[in-house]
Design goal:
This protein is α/β, with parallel strands linked by helices and 276 residues long. 39% of the residues lie in helices and 16% in strands. The strands form 2 sheets. It has an 8-stranded parallel β-sheet. A two-stranded antiparallel sheet has the order 1-2. Helix 1 runs parallel beside helix 2, helix 1 crosses helix 9 and helix 3 packs across helix 4. The longest helix has 15 residues. The relative contact order is 0.15.
């Protein structure tokens, strides 16, 4: 078993493992196998969503692992249909039923969906659930600075903002807003889609210097900034590699060289227009 990932303290008191197993786009059967293998390898954080359609697979993987519920941190997310106080409560109950749990560790608004303009209401619903102990932490996903500003104006600060983040999409303005408000940034698709940048000399040179793979170097780049990351992998060997990043540190020059790979290319989806 690999060493456990360090914990990141969230504003509301929960402690979140810095590396999660991402589960999109696996189905229930694939997810159950991947989750069981990941937990056996030392993962203690599983990332899923209503929209992935695999929360039951997460439940089965945890059951197979034999680990106590309190040893596994579960992040899940809800869709636009539930953007209201009552809706968030219904979404939480449905996710809990699919996950086979009484409490969700981290519950996220998956997309702001500004066209329906109810995301502030959705975050208010999350705050109520946290007060009641139905969830341990509340957060958002794909929220831009303008979306966050309206949530702040409502008197609520999310604990996590899960965003597309990789060396070619560093989102510095958004990361700065998160950091200024004590919001933990979690990177989804932290190795990119296709990961062509993994062959860049900035990454391969660091990998050679530290005796690590390019993917390990990039994941280390994420966590060394204080961020969390949720790489998806169904391969037990790759899962173990993705977790084996806490026995080395990148130099300031290596960190800067990787950050400089940002191309300014648009994100895969614009949260002002896309959502579910």
């Amino acid at each position: 078993m690999s060493a456990l990932a360090p914990l990141i303290q969230l504003r509301g008191g929960a402690a979140m493992p810095a590396i999660a197993l991402g589960t999109w786009p696996m189905n229930d059967a694939e997810t159950a196998d991947a989750v069981a293998a990941a937990l056996a390898s030392g993962y203690r954080h599983i990332d899923t969503a209503e929209n992935y359609g695999n929360e039951r697979g997460v439940a089965e993987g945890i059951r197979r692992s034999g680990l106590p519920r309190e040893d596994v941190f579960i992040t899940t997310k809800f869709n636009r249909a539930w953007h209201s106080a009552d809706g968030v409560r219904a979404a939480a109950e449905a996710s809990c039923a699919r996950l086979g749990v009484d409490t969700i560790d981290l519950f996220l608004v998956h997309w702001p969906n500004p066209d329906q303009d109810r995301y502030v209401e959705a975050v208010r619903g999350l705050a109520a659930l946290r007060e009641e102990g139905r969830i341990r932490a509340l957060g958002v996903s794909n929220f831009k600075p303008a979306h966050l500003a309206r949530v702040f104006d409502a008197g609520i600060v999310p604990e996590v903002n899960q965003i597309q983040l990789d060396p070619q999409h560093t989102q510095p303005e958004l990361q700065a807003v998160n950091r200024a408000h004590g919001i933990v940034t979690t990177a989804y698709t932290p190795l990119g889609r296709g990961g062509a940048f993994l062959a860049d000399p900035a990454i391969t040179a660091a990998a050679a210097a530290h005796g690590k793979t390019p993917a390990q170097v990039v994941l280390r780049w994420h966590v060394q900034q204080g961020n969390a990351a949720a790489p998806k992998s169904a391969s037990p060997e790759r899962q173990r590699e993705n977790l084996d990043i806490f026995d080395f540190a990148l130099t300031a020059a290596e960190m800067a060289a990787i950050t400089a790979l940002d191309t300014g290319a648009p994100l895969h989806h614009d949260a002002d227009d896309f959502g579910h």
